[in-house]
Design a protein that fits this description.
Layout lengths: L1 H4 L2 H14 L8 E18 L13 E15 L3 E12 L7 E11 L4 E8 L21 E9 L3 E9 L22 E10 L5 E13 L9 E13 L4 E12 L9 E13 L2 E10 L54 E10 L5 E11 L11 E13 L4 E12 L1 H7 L5 H4 E11 L2 E8 L3
Antiparallel strand pairs: 1-2, 1-18, 1-19, 2-3, 3-4, 4-5, 5-6, 6-7, 7-8, 8-9, 9-10, 10-11, 11-12, 12-13, 13-14, 14-15, 15-16, 16-17, 17-18
Length: 445
């Protein structure tokens, strides 16, 4: 099975044959074309949001991020093609950070069968495992072949990707690193079912991910890890309940076996269209020891299994607090003692176009460590507000305060000074998303 996935030409030919078997015909219909732009500018002021290596390097920092994207989209009855180049980076940054964000073709039949191939966004369920974390400006996309069926109640998607470095083609090696996504190859199966009135939905997810070995003598070896799990959502009129559980197994890049899991539950109450209240709890398993002891250190215990859960493709910013301090940033030398995230918050829409949000997060590690007096990492309060002037222009702002504990100081290996125990972050963002051009025409008969 593993050797088969390392021969992408075979399954590519099989999918193309399946595509022709769909019986796609050039159905006469309207043609649609649109050209859209997206310009996002965000200024940030951080005081402690980034981990420092030494006291000399710790400074309050401020910067401006920019994302500029143009999207061309063509549609007709059975075909859609999208191209979207973008520039993303920090104002004043040297070099041209220009890339193709999306470039794909989607062919579908009237009965719900489809084939979508090219560079594309992947967004599934609540996006905790597979999502488009657009907050990061660059946002993740995948070079992938996707085929499946989208029905009223049942949906099935099968995805496959195979990534290769150009300089390894002539050598005959199978090597990949430093590309669009960290994996060498990936196969995913997603199934979703909705009740007729969409009140209840359940998804099943299975992934097989091949990662290039990080060992010097195994540069041509691919280690495979798997993820399986489910997401469920019950959404009556005035409230909702969501839950999910995922388990990881296989081997990571150093060849160590993986035995990790995560679980989450969230409840939301919507008394009216103007406001809602939510609460939830996330648990991500963790390790007790280092997976690979840092170079030059002696006497550190190395564990024989990876128990730290890793949602590789998830939209992390949406789930673990606005500052992204614990989950997005590695602990000291990659040590991952897991995470517990207990949160409570609410949204208010006092007038059309205006949204106010507030949330409190309690953080703790998931692992019992003998040298720590407490599992508590810290407390975080997030505030944000956004206002849409119209469909094309909106402005948003936010402020986050976090108080870290002694446990955070020890695990993050940051200096124990008042400023770094009291973390602050503020931001202001302008988003402009106009439609530059659109037209509809019919084929000439």
């Amino acid at each position: 099975m593993k050797h088969y996935f390392n021969q992408p030409a075979k399954w590519f030919c099989m999918v193309m044959a399946l595509l022709f078997s769909f019986g796609l015909k050039a159905q006469e219909a309207d043609n649609q074309f649109s050209l859209d732009a997206q310009l996002v500018t965000r200024g940030e002021l951080r005081a402690g949001g980034f981990k420092a290596d030494s006291l000399d390097k710790y400074r309050r920092t401020q910067f401006v991020l920019g994302k500029y994207r143009v999207t061309a989209d063509y549609k007709r009855s059975w075909l859609e093609v999208k191209l979207s180049p973008q520039f993303a980076g920090i104002w004043g940054q040297g070099g041209a950070n220009i890339s193709l964000y999306e470039g794909w073709a989607n062919m579908q039949t009237k009965n719900g069968l489809f084939v979508k191939i090219g560079r594309q966004e992947l967004e599934y369920d609540d996006e905790r495992i597979i999502g488009n974390d657009d907050w990061t400006m660059t946002a993740p996309t995948h070079d992938v072949l996707k085929l499946g069926y989208d029905g009223e109640s049942h949906k099935v998607h099968l995805m496959a990707a195979y990534n290769q470095n150009a300089d390894s083609i002539e050598t005959g090696m199978s090597y990949y690193a430093g590309g669009l996504q960290p994996y060498k190859n990936m196969q995913t199966l997603w199934y979703h079912y909705d009740t007729p009135k969409k009140m209840f939905g359940i998804s099943l997810l299975g992934m097989n991910i091949g990662m290039q070995s990080l060992k010097e003598k195994e540069s041509d070896v691919t280690y495979y890890q798997q993820l399986v799990g489910t997401y469920m959502a019950f959404r009556p009129k005035y409230w909702s309940l969501e839950g999910e559980f995922y388990y990881q197994l296989g081997k990571e890049e150093h060849g160590l076996p993986i035995d990790a899991f995560m679980g989450s539950v969230k409840a939301t109450v919507r008394p009216s269209d103007k406001y809602n209240i939510f609460a939830g709890y996330d648990y991500l398993s963790g390790d007790k020891f280092f997976s690979v002891p840092p170079e030059g250190h002696l006497g550190m215990v190395q564990h024989d299994k990876i128990r730290g859960f890793n949602a590789i493709f998830g939209s992390h910013h949406e789930f673990y607090g606005a500052m992204d301090f614990f989950y997005m940033k590695n602990y000291y030398h990659g040590f991952t003692p897991g995470l517990q995230n207990l949160y409570l918050g609410g949204n208010v829409n006092p007038v059309d176009g205006l949204n106010l949000n507030a949330a409190y997060h309690y953080y703790a590690i998931a692992t019992d460590l003998d040298y720590l007096d407490s599992k508590t990492l810290g407390h975080e309060v997030d505030f944000s507000a956004s206002y849409a002037f119209n469909k094309a222009v909106s402005v948003s702002a936010g402020y986050t305060y976090m108080h870290g504990t002694e446990t955070m100081v020890i695990l993050q290996q940051i200096q124990e000074v008042t400023e770094q125990r009291q973390l602050h972050w503020g931001w202001l963002m302008l988003s402009v998303k106009p439609t530059l051009f659109s037209t509809i025409w019919q084929d000439k008969r």
